Fold this sequence. Notes:
- By secondary structure, the protein is α+β, with helices and mostly antiparallel strands.
- It has 2 domains: about 5-80, no CATH class; about 90-160, Roll (SH3 type barrels), CATH 2.30.30.
- The protein has helices at about 55-85, 145-160, and strands spanning about 5, 20-25, 30-35, 40-45, 50-55, 90-95, 110-115, 120-125, 130-135, 140.
- Strand 3 and strand 4 (about 40-45) form a beta hairpin.
- The chain is elongated, with a radius of gyration of 29 Å.
- It starts with a strand and ends in a 6-residue tail after the last helix.
- The mean pLDDT is about 85.
Amino acid sequence: MAKYLHMLKSGLDITRGRSYEIVLETDTTFYIRDDVHDEHAFSKQDENRLFTLDTEVSLEYKRTQLATLTSEIAQLEAQLAEESRLKVGDYARVTDTTSVDNFTLDDIVRITRYEDATYPLRGVSPISDVVEWFAPASLTKITPDEARASLIAKIDAHFDGQEAD
């Protein structure tokens, strides 16, 4: 288990009240990295004057770090969910055709309407007037550039390499 020095004084990029992980320990000295990642040596004789060495402090510091990381992860997960949620105006790729009649796998749609229903997303083909209501699980959000590239590739495949006259 990692040990920590809980600092009782500030200075040299060290914050009073903060705990720093011991990166190296010798018979007489503790080595830590400060707030700007510089290494500092503290004599073990300075315990209780400059720092305390306490498993409880180390454990509490780890709990604080864990709580901070857990909060950051939750925020990132919420941000990711929001970024991948389809909204009106977004482009999407059809990824599941189980309950889809007018589109095939990998077709591109633009979301034109949202309603609170089993199939809440109204998708319209950007190259025809074909319309269908989709479940969110049937679609994957893509960028306009990805939609454009996919549509151009489908058009090129339709001409099968033939040059226009």
